[in-house]
């Protein structure tokens, strides 16, 4: 009887830890890159999301390995997203968005959700090797289908001087 309690605790702890991990929003790993600190950004790109279903970039010369601060402004009235992704993220995220109630925001580290008139920033470190093609998109239902995306073929990393 005396030893039963510690033994039980030992057995229960891993299960409890696992349950807690599953309940938590674990940061997703993406082949094309990861979020970065603002201080690490080497350049800033301005993006405008419009009600004409476009994402307009003031520059698109992004290289693999770049750390870019995107300043995204929703110049329209409708909510828009700015998602940094790739083909596999698109498939996964479109499904996710269809399941969600309209207007619900989600927690993806690679997605900004913007209400009309809002401006938000995201800093992204593009993988130096794997970020070959990146898909910038808005996944508000119907928007991607209406052309609200930009597929960018990344330039190769700059050679060190
Ligand atoms: Cu949109």
Automatic annotation (TrEMBL):
GO MF annotation terms: metal ion binding
Cleaved signal peptide residues: 1-19
Signal recorded as keyword: yes
Main location: membrane
SUPFAM superfamilies registered for this protein in UniProt: Cupredoxins
PANTHER family the record matches: AURACYANIN-B (PTHR38439), COPPER-RESISTANT CUPROPROTEIN COPI (PTHR38439:SF3)
Protein name in the entry: Blue (type 1) copper domain-containing protein
Organism: Aquitalea aquatica
């Amino acid at each position: 009887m005396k030893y039963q309690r510690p033994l039980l605790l030992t057995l229960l702890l891993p299960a409890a830890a696992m349950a807690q991990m599953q309940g938590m929003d674990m940061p997703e790993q993406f082949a094309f890159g990861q979020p970065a600190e603002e201080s690490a950004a080497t350049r800033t790109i301005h993006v405008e999301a419009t009600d004409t279903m476009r994402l307009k970039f003031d520059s698109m010369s992004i290289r693999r390995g770049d750390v870019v601060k995107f300043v995204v402004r929703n110049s329209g009235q409708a909510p828009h997203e700015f998602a940094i992704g790739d083909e596999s993220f698109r498939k996964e995220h479109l499904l996710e968005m269809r399941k969600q109630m309209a207007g619900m925001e989600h927690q993806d580290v690679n997605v900004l959700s913007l209400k009309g008139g809002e401006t938000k920033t995201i800093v992204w470190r593009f993988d130096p090797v794997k970020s070959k093609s990146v898909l910038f998109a808005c996944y508000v239902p119907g928007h991607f289908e209406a052309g609200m995306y930009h597929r960018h073929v990344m330039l190769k990393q700059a050679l060190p001087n």
